[in-house]
Amino acid sequence: MQDTPEVVVLRLGHRPGRDERMTTHVGLTARALGADRLLLSGTAADRRESVDAVTDRFGGPFEVETTDQPQRVLENWSGDVVHLTMYGLPVQEVMADIRRRFQGRAGDAAVLVVVGAEKVAFEVYEAADWNVAVTNQPHSEVASLAVFLDRLFEGGELDRDWEDADRVVVPEAEGKRVEDT
Questions:
Q1: In whole angstroms, what is the distance from residue 178 CA to residue 167 CA?
Q2: How far is Cα 106 from Cα 34, in angstroms, rounded to an integer?
Q3: How far apart are CA 1 and CA 11, in angstroms?
Q4: What is the secondary structure of 56-91 as a DSSP string?
Q5: Is 164 exposed, middle or buried (0-12, 13-18, 19+ CB in 10 A)?
Q6: What is the rounded CA–CA span in Å between residue 12 and residue 165?
Q7: Are 132 and 88 in contact (CB under 8 A)?
Q8: pLDDT (tens digit, 9 = 90+) per residue, 94-134?
Q9: Do residues 116 and 141 make contact, with C-beta atoms less than 8 angstroms apart?
Q10: What share of the chain is helix, strand, coil (3-state, %, to 5)?
Q11: Cα–chain-centroid distance for residue 108?
């Protein structure tokens, strides 16, 4: 994953009382599967502490930031924008083009991956370079993000090295083992 542009995930929207775990899982999935940064908007900003705590324990690099103006982030983005939506083009049909463009941007502007919570404004669809569907069926935005990032990095994110971890998970065929570093 070296020499690739930065990947930033923008979580659009957050329904208090309903999305606490979902928004946290968007952040954890972004971190674990190769994104560099998470932008939380509005009331989703309350989930920052949870994602930061995992990064502190299990390593990074990964940053969480907040914004009160997500639409402005979209409008002013200098890199590519990928909006994950079930209404988009099938990921298997557009991924080769996205990956080619992504790899061609090494050392260049970041790629913004937009993940919605509630109904997404039409302006998001217009601002996106790609509206991408991981199936055109209703399902989890966390699943869409995981599939998209895995396809973007072609599995390379699974072998990522983690810096400054206080703890590491030791792979086991059975049981659970976490060790302090």
A1: 7
A2: 15
A3: 23
A4: HHH-BS-EEEEES-HHHHHHH--S-EEEEEEEEEEH
A5: exposed
A6: 29
A7: yes
A8: 999 999 888 877 666 689 999 988 788 999 999 999 999 99
A9: yes
A10: 40, 25, 35
A11: 18
Nearest 5°: the CA angle 14, 56, 6 is: 65
Say if residue 61 is preceded by a cis peptide, omega within 30 of 0: yes
pLDDT of residue 107: 63
CA–CA gap between residue 115 and residue 108 (Å, rounded):
22
| Average predicted confidence (pLDDT) for the chain | 90
The residue type found at 127 is A
Tokens of 76: 């002013």
Whether domain 7-180 has CATH 1.10.150.20: the reply is no
Minimal CA–CA distance to 144: which of 123, 130, 164? 130
pLDDT < 50 stretches in the chain: 1
Query: Peptide bond before 5: cis, by omega within 30 degrees of 0?
Result: no
Delimit the domains of the chain by residue range.
7-180
d(CA 168, CA 12): 31
Rounded distance between C-alpha atoms, residue 157 and residue 1, angstroms: 7
Tell me which H or E stretch contains 37.
strand 37-41
- CA–CA gap between residue 168 and residue 178 (Å, rounded): 6
Q: What pLDDT score does 98 carry?
A: 94
